[in-house]
Design brief:
This protein is α/β, with parallel strands linked by helices and about 850 residues long. About 45% of the residues lie in helices and about 15% in strands. It comes from Aureobasidium uvarum.
């Protein structure tokens, strides 16, 4: 927190509080002076900001002890998670929960929520992919797996979203002012090379050797973040790399020869590499700086991994038995040619031996089938930035294509279809293909998605490698953060029936609350908790938007990145449809309607025009509807600004219905669907991603599914192309209302309506009627609160499968071949 964020509270602190402070801080600070010097303030002049600082530092010190023990005991064998994104959210609450001292912290005399609320989110990610990485870290530590995460220490995380006059405005997220959760490791640095040239010579044995030289050097500095497991001393490590200009003699020479300005300029150029998180989700932009980030982080991480392995003095062939590296999407794919380069060029292994090690080390997780999101890099760009890697990629491709040719001698087209090098102008490297060729396992993130990758984008690779290389690990979420931390009262209610909190480590135990689905008292308690959570969200909405919403209304929530494939436009068109219907009713009829609050939240990538139009429309509809005296509580439309992890912790427990309505076949899995159901909300969704497995687990009578199926989407798109789009009657009325200027100048939204009329790639019209009807049946169902509660309780009871712990166990068994390593109590 910056000094300016802290309102200094001069008032005397009550005596009990001073005592509590002293008692508590005793675990983290030697004495009052120690505390004061750490925080540079008087103990008796302490506001929430200082309370946060003190508490965080105290808990951090607790973590360090277990962290050191864990790192000493996990010497060399590790899983490594390479992810460009870790969407961690806040750490303090989680640290207190995992260390089991949350109650102690309550003694401090502050409202814990206020103290916790001071912390800024560590928002080093865009959306589901980054959050998944964070949930996996929590599960790995909680299950005692020796594992490290490797990422980039962005100076600016995902931008902060402000809504000004209904439009999204992006504000930089400078989050590092005060971050007690990271430890700079001044002794851990790696020099990373870019550009330069490749020199070849023959060594004494006549073997050709390649040397990559004369490049520009940037230094990677390590910052470590402790990752505490729940109810275990295991504390793993997240290592984030920060870029700095290399500070070798070279720089001093420059400095001494009077090139002071140049040397400062070099410094800034180097620091740019880890400066900012690219804010695109599911879109590949091909910027040079992004490629630099990728190589910088892959190379630093691999260097670190290899350095640790070499200390073990084991033979190279042991490398894949000691180390498993999981690639979170294709962003870390350069790690594949980089490891090959290290083994061949630096360690002198022959190509095939090295390649065998590489393939057995890596696993690749795919998160999308959408063409626009599949990463490609132009050959001239790679040639310029990483000349030796390009040679290696070509050689990998040569060996691969020779194999394909031998195996499928008659299928000449196959070679160009599967080639890692796309023969376009300029030529492009297809990163997903490189990731498949360089990994021993490839997985999708939900059953439908894993099937789709095998039958569409990676079909040929299934022919080449066989079915066994391709597998599925359906995503999950950590119940520690997403149930216990976000919804402590529900967690407590469940614990009261299950005789404790074991379910937080074995979520399948939840099935035991099925027995209470018909229990009057339990239902009442469950309902009261939902109402309290909705009230908390209503208060937050009032504070931040000024709009009053009734907690008794049906809360209908869609929060996620804004994307056409996720179809927030379908939702807002549906809301307009409802508004028009309400307007056409008599006041008596309107009174009979189920009151609703439609809540939206999510960021649009700054360059994604259509997504920004959707945000604008939601805000304009809200402005009109919320101020329409005829409508009152019957409908409210809210856009929650700057949706992020910590806001999700307030939002997820407060839904009656949440929306997961992507065009079938486009949402790889989705994970917020799991969060909402686990917190006692039902969902409206398409047959897409993990919705399908959620339906299988909780029962189709407990979910509202609608819309065309994935297998029919292509045919419908074809129809659109050849016969034009048929606009649904109800949707036409919505478009007419928009065109009439009801929600402001209609030009502002013409892109949104035109795209539906012209090709409707996302099937907004084709699914519209079914969508609206399903919402009508939700209104009906909600009226019978007892039946509704029955459904929600059963749904919660059956969500055990969707814990991230289960994912980690599946990865460990199918892909990494590793076992947990429990710390002995004495820490040995
Ligand atoms: O990953 C999401 C999927 O859309 C979602 O269905 C799935 O549940 C989740 C976890 O598996 N993907 C996602 O969040 N992707 C990104 O955020 C992302 C970020 C950057 C880039 C691509 C995708 N990029 O190319 O820069």
């Amino acid at each position: 927190f910056g000094a300016s964020d802290i309102k200094s509270v001069e008032a005397e602190i009550p005596d009990e509080q001073k005592t509590a402070w002293k008692k508590h801080t005793a675990s983290g600070f030697k004495n009052k002076e120690d505390f004061e010097t750490t925080l540079a303030r008087s103990l008796y002049n302490c506001d929430e900001g200082a309370a946060y600082g003190g508490t965080a530092l105290a808990f951090r010190d607790r973590l360090i002890i277990d962290w050191n023990k864990t790192q000493q005991s996990h010497t060399f064998a590790d899983q490594k998670h390479l992810s460009l994104e870790f969407l961690m959210g806040r750490a303090l609450d989680n640290a207190m929960l995992n260390v089991g001292l949350k109650d102690v912290a309550r003694d401090l005399g502050f409202r814990m929520e206020d103290v916790i609320g001071i912390e800024r989110d560590a928002a080093l990610g865009n959306g589901g992919l980054g959050r998944l990485a964070a949930c996996f870290l929590d599960s790995l530590a909680s299950l005692d797996y020796p594992a490290w995460g490797y990422g980039l220490r962005y100076r600016y995380g995902i931008f902060k979203q402000e809504i000004i006059n209904g439009y999204q405005v992006e504000v930089p997220d400078y989050w590092l002012d005060f971050n007690p959760w990271e430890f700079p490791r001044h002794d851990v640095t790696v020099d990373i090379q870019f550009y330069g040239n490749v020199r070849k010579y023959n060594d004494d044995n006549g073997r050709q050797v390649s040397v990559w030289e004369n490049g520009e050097i940037v230094t990677a500095n390590a910052y470590d973040v402790p990752i505490p497991g729940y109810n275990t001393p295991t504390t793993n490590n997240l290592r984030l790399w920060s870029s700095k200009a290399a500070s070798g003699e070279f720089d001093f020479q420059k400095f001494n020869s009077g090139e002071y300005e140049q040397s400062v300029h070099d410094q800034m150029r180097a620091e740019t590499i880890s400066a900012v998180l690219y804010p695109n989700d599911n879109l590949d932009r091909g910027k040079e700086l992004r490629l630099k980030q990728q190589y910088f982080w892959c190379a630093a991480s691999l260097h670190d991994i290899v350095r640790r392995f070499k200390k073990s003095k084991k033979a190279w062939k042991e490398f894949p038995n000691q180390i498993a590296i999981q690639l979170n999407d294709t962003h870390p794919t350069l790690a594949i040619p980089e490891l090959q380069r290290i083994l061949v060029d630096n360690e002198g292994l022959d190509w095939d031996t090295a390649w065998n090690i590489v393939v057995n080390t890596f696993g690749y997780t795919n998160h999308t089938v959408m063409a626009e999101a599949l990463e490609k890099w132009s050959v001239p760009l790679i040639q310029h930035l990483l000349p030796r890697h390009l040679e290696i990629i070509y050689e990998i491709n040569l060996h691969f294509l020779q194999y394909v040719e031998r195996t499928f001698p008659k299928d000449r087209d196959m070679l160009s279809r599967v080639s890692i090098v796309e023969e376009s102008n300029p030529k492009m490297i297809r990163m997903a293909f490189l990731a498949i060729v360089g990994s021993h396992k490839v997985n999708g993130v939900a059953e439908l998605h894993s099937d789709l990758i095998k039958t569409t984008i990676f079909k040929d690779f299934v022919k080449i490698y066989g079915q066994d290389k391709f597998t599925n690990v359906t995503n999950g979420i950590t119940p520690r953060r997403w149930l216990h931390q976000a919804n402590p009262k529900l967690s407590e209610l469940i614990a009261s029936k299950l005789g404790g909190y074991d379910f937080l480590k074995d979520l399948t135990l939840l099935h035991k609350i099925e027995a209470y689905a018909d229990d009057k008292q339990f239902r009442k308690a469950f309902q009261d908790i939902k109402y309290a959570n909705k009230t908390r969200l209503a208060n937050y909405i009032k504070e931040t938007t000024g709009v009053s919403v009734n907690p008794a209304a049906l809360f209908d929530i869609q929060v996620k990145r804004i994307h056409e494939y996720k179809r927030q436009q379908l939702n807002i068109f549906g809301v307009i449809h409802r508004y028009l219907a309400l307007k056409a009713m008599s006041p008596e009829e309107r009174k009979k309607m189920q009151p609703r609050v439609s809540i939206f939240g999510g960021k649009a990538a700054p360059g994604y025009w259509m997504a920004k139009c959707i945000i604008h429309l939601v805000n304009e509809v809200g402005r009109v509807v919320n101020n329409d005296p005829e409508i009152g509580d019957a409908l409210k439309v809210i856009f929650i600004e700057d949706y992020n992890v910590s806001k999700c912790e307030i939002i997820a427990p407060a839904s009656d219905i949440s929306e997961h309505i992507s065009t079938a076949g486009t949402e790889a899995s989705g994970t917020s669907n799991m969060k909402f159901v686990l917190n006692g909300g039902l969902i409206i969704g398409t047959c897409d991603g993990a919705n399908i497995e959620i339906t299988r687990e909780i029962g189709e009578e407990n979910i509202f599914l609608f819309g065309n199926l994935a297998e029919d989407v292509e045919d419908i798109r074809h129809q659109h192309t050849y016969e034009g789009v048929l606009i649904d009657d109800g949707l036409q009325k919505v478009f007419d209302a928009i065109h009439s200027g009801m929600f402001g100048h209609s030009d502002e939204f013409s892109a949104l309506t035109n795209t539906v009329v012209n090709h409707d790639h996302w099937l907004t019209s084709a699914d519209f009627e079914a969508y609206c009807k399903t919402h009508d049946s939700i209104d009906e169902a909600f009226k019978d609160q007892e039946a509704w509660l029955h459904k929600t309780i059963l749904a919660v009871a059956r969500m055990g499968f969707f814990t991230a712990d289960r994912c980690i166990e599946e990865y460990a068994e199918m892909i990494w071949n590793v076992e947990p390593q429990k710390l002995k109590q004495n820490g040995a």
